[in-house]
Every structure is written in C-alpha cells, then in structure tokens.
Amino acid sequence: MKNEEKIMTLHPQGKQGVNILKRRYDLIKSFILKTIEEHKEISFSDLTDLAVDTLSSTFDGKVVWYIVTVKLDLEARQIIERIPKTSPHKLRLKI
User: Fold this and answer.
1) Does the structural domain 6-93 have CATH classification 1.10.10.10?
2) Which residue among 7, 27, 32, 37 is least packed, with the fewest CB closer than 10 Å?
3) pLDDT tens, 7-46?
4) 3-state secondary structure of 60
5) 41: which strand partners?
6) Contact between 10 and 73 (Cβ < 8 Å)
C-alpha cells in the first residue's frame, strides 16, 4: 500500500507533530469525537480503555499511541479541550 495519504499532526504546545496515515487518523479522530459527544465529557483513561475495547480487533496499529497522538492534534486544532483542574484530565468538545 504505497502512496497512502498521510497527515502531519499538530501538538498543542507547538512541538513537532508526527506523520501518520490519514485513514488511521480519520478513524481515530471520528472515534474520539463520537465518544466525547456521547459522554459530553470523558476522562482520558476512560477514552483510551473504550478505544482499546472497541478498536483493537480491527485497527492495524497501536490503539493507545494513536489515541494520544490524535487527541493532541485535536487539542491543537481547538476541536476538543482538556477541562481545567481535572485529574486525571477530562476532555470535552470545544464549542
């Protein structure tokens, strides 16, 4: 599968992003957004657990690594945000 489209992710602290396959990015992105939408807010660890349960059997990559990477990208793009003063941190859609 050569020449698959890739996307360069962003990082909320302006650090260097990573180049990942767009199909993987899109799948993880839609999972994160759908899950946050359903829960309104969700802790990062719950999101990761759900992702592993839901995606591990079909996803051709390390689920947790992609969740972390795409979550940071969505924060950098102002699509989701960490809820201040939550520990462990919780996420919500940024309106």
Assistant:
1) yes
2) 37
3) 999 999 999 999 999 999 999 999 999 999 999 999 999 9
4) coil
5) 92
6) yes
**Cα-to-chain-centroid distance, residue 94:** 14
Q: Which of 52, 58, 75, 48 is nearest to 24 (CA)?
A: 58
CA 19 to chain centre: 14
Distance CA 76, CA 87 (A): 20
Tokens in use for 27? Answer: 């799948």
Give the three-class secondary structure for 56: coil
With beta carbons less than 8 A apart as the criterion, state whether 34 and 74 touch: no
In the 8-state DSSP scheme, what is residue 61?
S
CA distance 71 to 81: 9
Residue 1 in this model has a pLDDT that exceeds 70? no
